[in-house]
Structure formats: structure tokens, C-alpha cells
Design brief:
Elements: E1 14-17, H1 21-31, E2 35-40, E3 47-52, E4 55-60, E5 69-74, E6 85-87, E7 93-98, E8 113-115, E9 123-124, E10 130-133, E11 144-150, E12 154-155, E13 161-163, E14 167-174, E15 176-181, E16 188-191, E17 195-197, E18 204-209, E19 213-220, E20 226-228, E21 251-253, E22 261-262, E23 269-272, H2 275-278, E24 283-290, E25 295-298, E26 305-312, E27 314-321, E28 327-332, E29 336-340, E30 343-349, E31 354-361
Parallel strand pairs: 1-4, 5-7
Antiparallel strand pairs: 2-3, 3-4, 6-7, 8-29, 9-10, 10-11, 11-19, 12-18, 13-20, 14-17, 14-19, 15-16, 15-18, 17-21, 22-23, 23-24, 24-31, 25-30, 26-29, 26-31, 27-28, 27-30
Length: about 350
């Protein structure tokens, strides 16, 4: 009885035209460290198959077309005696790049920003999620904040992945979401008001959500890489809650267990989300709440920026740079703002039971 083989791709090759195999073979093996996998026919070779770093290359005398371009990741991009851009004898262009380059932050371009819930359309994003941009100018590419919505409840088509970031914070705004994180034990469910710090490179996965889940996500830099890690099984076999990830540690803030403290000002209380300790004081995050006419003063700060998102209610924001006219702006539920470095002013509640998520990035 014959058995059918699984329908899957078992190997893949990049075909590169190559009229003269000898010089190209020497270049790929001697200079770049490729390994010979096959040569045929033996008496008069027309094809050579090489491999390196999971890539298979077929040098083919009979192939035609553009000789192509290869991007090769290396621990040391100068492995080919210095240059990082090369051309093989067959014309293939080679880019040698670092496999784990340092994170580069774009220069900060500060501006006062207000985004309105009524003006912002959601657009499709990763894993079936819908995104609304809360900082359209990205402060020069330095930071991104998104209002994320999952309309349909149930399993989320996510996969184990991680991000190359400076920091990333997720606040559960409405509904609930079940997630799992590397070295943090069994999957857990975040409820409205809960918050996590996702330190750089921590593997994680979104498993399931309630209908109409909404979260607020803020991270830096604005454009960052998301990598799948299919070889990582979550939850991990052992837990290490205090593990260091590039100078930060994972944090889960549970709103139901949190205490509210009086905030300097008039009538506001604050719920500290614990981000300062978890990020080495890079990020501070808190929820402010107050009744009508409550006021909190926003002193001039050397911080990179302050980001606010109105969770419920409404407030009047009056801010400006020292010596300039103060700009007064009404904010309602779902509105967001960026208060840049050097700006000061005050926020005054204009509606009942107002709550403001306020994040400061140093």
C-alpha cells in the first residue's frame, strides 16, 4: 500500500544565471563561505548548488535573465575583506548586513498633536486587527501609538512573534484578551484597565479575545520589525518573571488590584501602572481620574513627550510652550494628544467621571 506524502514545500532555491561557473563558484565558497551541495553533470558541469545560512543558490549556465540580488545576514558584515556591497563574477549583487544591528532611533521632531475619535478611520493591520493611528506625524518616526480594535470575538489568528523595539506598552481599553508571554507562565486574560509592558524581543502571542476588544498600544520607534518565531513554543516550560530583556522586564498591571493616589493638583486621583520601574525610568504611565472641574497641572518637562488618551468623559486641555500663547483644546472619549517637550499647562475635567491615560517618555 502506498502512502501519500504531505503536501508541503521541502526545499527552495534561488536560481542565478551564470555563464562561467568556475569564478562564481570560487567567489561564493572562498569569499562568502557558501558550501557546495551538488555539481552536475560531473564531466561538464552546468549547475552548481550552494548553501549558506538556510539559503540554497543554484548557479545555472542555462538560466537567463537578471543575475539577481542577495541580502546576506552576517554577525560581521565585513567578512568579505571589508566591503559590504559586492558583485559576484556572474553579476549577482550582494548586500552584506548585520543580523542583529543596533536599534537606531530617528531624530525627535516634536509637535503638539490632537487626534479625534470621530475623524480617525480604522485600517486593516496584522493578524486580522484594525488599527487607528493616534500620532499621525510619528514625531519624526520616533514613536507610534495605535488604537487597535478586534471586532469579532474568539480565537485570534496570531503566531508567536517578537518586536525589535525600544519599548512597547499595551493598555486594554475595552473587553478582554487572552495572551501568553515567554517566561511568564501560563496564558492569562487581560481585562479592561489592565496593562502590560512588552520588553524588547519577548516572544508572545495573542490567543483569544472578546467581541469588540479595544487596546491602546504605544511603542518606539514608530517603524519597527516584527519577527515570527515558529520554533518557540509558548508557554515556555519554565517561568522566569524577573528575566531581563535588554534592560527591561515584563510587567502586568492588574487594574482590579491597583490603588488610587491623590495627584498633585485639584481633585484628580492617579493609578500608577508601574512602568517606570520596569523600563528603568524610560517610560512612566498612569491613569488619572476626576470629576467635573478637577484640574491637574502639567509642568514644563524635559521628557521627550507626554501622550494622553481619553478613556472616558472629557476635559479641556490648555497647553503651550513657555512664552507662547496657550492653546485650548476640548478632548472627548477616544481622543488623543501629544504634549511635546517644553510645553506646559493644565487639564481640566469638563464631563463626569473622566479618565485619562497619560504616558510620559523620557
Amino acid at each position: 500500500m502506498s502512502t501519500s506524502r504531505p503536501k508541503r514545500i521541502e526545499e527552495a532555491e534561488v536560481v542565478l544565471p551564470c555563464r562561467d561557473l568556475g569564478p562564481a563558484l570560487a567567489f561564493f565558497t572562498d569569499r562568502l563561505g557558501f558550501r557546495v551541495e551538488a555539481v552536475f553533470p560531473a564531466d561538464s558541469p552546468r549547475t552548481v548548488i550552494l548553501s549558506a545560512g538556510g539559503l540554497r543558490v543554484r548557479l545555472d549556465r542555462d538560466a537567463t535573465g537578471d543575475p539577481g540580488r542577495l541580502r546576506l545576514g552576517c554577525a560581521d558584515p565585513t567578512l568579505a575583506d571589508g566591503p559590504t556591497r559586492l558583485e559576484a563574477p556572474n553579476g549577482t549583487r550582494i548586500d552584506l548586513v548585520a543580523t542583529d544591528p543596533p536599534l537606531v532611533l530617528p531624530p525627535l521632531a516634536t509637535s503638539f498633536v490632537v487626534t479625534r475619535f470621530d475623524d480617525g478611520a480604522f485600517h486593516p493591520g496584522r493578524a486580522g486587527m484594525r488599527y487607528r493611528d493616534l500620532i499621525p506625524d510619528r514625531q519624526g518616526g520616533r514613536i507610534i501609538a495605535s488604537h487597535i480594535h478586534i471586532p469579532d470575538g474568539g480565537p485570534v489568528p496570531d503566531y508567536v512573534h517578537y518586536h525589535r523595539v525600544r519599548f512597547q506598552l499595551i493598555y486594554c481599553y475595552r473587553g478582554w484578551v487572552k495572551v501568553v508571554y515567554e517566561d511568564q507562565g501560563s496564558p492569562f486574560t487581560m481585562q479592561a484597565g489592565d496593562c502590560v509592558l512588552q520588553p524588547p524581543r519577548i516572544r508572545h502571542r495573542v490567543l483569544e479575545s472578546s467581541p469588540d476588544l479595544e487596546v491602546v498600544e504605544i511603542g518606539s520607534p514608530a517603524e519597527h520589525e516584527t519577527f515570527a518565531d515558529p520554533g518557540c513554543a509558548l508557554p515556555t516550560l519554565s517561568a522566569d518573571p524577573s528575566r531581563d530583556f535588554d534592560g527591561q522586564r515584563f510587567l502586568l498591571h492588574v487594574a482590579a488590584d491597583a490603588e488610587w493616589d491623590d495627584e498633585p493638583g485639584r481633585g484628580f486621583q492617579a493609578r500608577d501602572l508601574g512602568m517606570a520601574a520596569a523600563t528603568g525610568r524610560l517610560v512612566d504611565a498612569r491613569v488619572l481620574r476626576g470629576e467635573e472641574s478637577a484640574r491637574v497641572d502639567l509642568e514644563p518637562a524635559d521628557a521627550e513627550l507626554r501622550f494622553g488618551f481619553v478613556l472616558q468623559g472629557g476635559l479641556m486641555l490648555a497647553v503651550g510652550r513657555a512664552g507662547d500663547a496657550v492653546e485650548t483644546t476640548a478632548l472627548s472619549r477616544g481622543d488623543a494628544c501629544v504634549i511635546p517637550k517644553g510645553f506646559a499647562g493644565a487639564a481640566t475635567v469638563s464631563g463626569p467621571a473622566t479618565e485619562l491615560l497619560l504616558i510620559t517618555v523620557d
